[in-house]
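Example 3.2
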Amino acid sequence: MITLMPSVVDKTEILTKVLFEAAKRQKVCRLELSNEPDARIVHPYGVCQTGKRKIMIICWQESGFSGASKIPGYRNLALMKCTTVELLDRHFLIRGDFDPLDSFYLDWVFHVEVAT
């Protein structure tokens, strides 16, 4: 019997779909990233490719592991390091200072709708 493990591409696609749904519904998420001791609680704003050609989860982090960064605050987290996304039973409001047109964000896969 051979057990097939999902490929990295499959896993990344699934995580991206969950993040898309969370951003669309403005649902707070619990993220786990590889090599981090605790989860992060975030407001997912989108997924994009940066000018450095990295695929990142763009979010506002409200609590959880943060390394040396202060909480709360914006975070750009590597999608490839994400191991788990869990939608929580809470909604978030999109911050007025979020700018999807910032030059840091090269190509969006998706992002939250910003009121104009």
